[in-house]
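Schema walk-through. Below, the input block comes first and the output block second. Nothing else is stored per chain. Lengths vary across the set, and this one has 164 residues.
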Amino acid sequence: MAVPIVSFVGRSNSGKTTLIERLIPELVIAGYRVATIKHAGHGFDLDTEGKDSWRHKRAGASTVIVVSKGSLAMFSDVSSEVGVEELRGRFVDPDLDLIIAEGWKSEGYPKVVVVRDQLGEVPVSTDGLLAVVSNMPIELAVPTFHPDEIKRLSELLIRHFPKR
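--- output ---
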């Protein structure tokens, strides 16, 4: 059985990353092994200039993998955007309990929408909508949470995605 995916979506600077950062420890305390996959719509550069891996990439390697005791990082060219499902299949430990994806609002994964001021800041499909997190009161048919209600949100996820 594939590791389940829940997607956290919302406009830029809506608080998704902070919410996820605060949610992960609650899930870990509950015994969950969690992976996160972040969609960076505007591109990114993680490698540090001058480091060996940066030098290898700059020299023309299409993939650079750095391994140390307890860590692994990979920098690789891709011809097109890679979907979260493909990433799950290729890189995620199948013994994990949950993947938290930040982004992929148009995909059919169960999702939590994070909003600051009003629902509709970013168009999001209601298919699979689990909850909305907002600092403003919102009336919906799904549970709504204030950004500080981390424990309640983790309990919802634990109910929806039981440990494997």
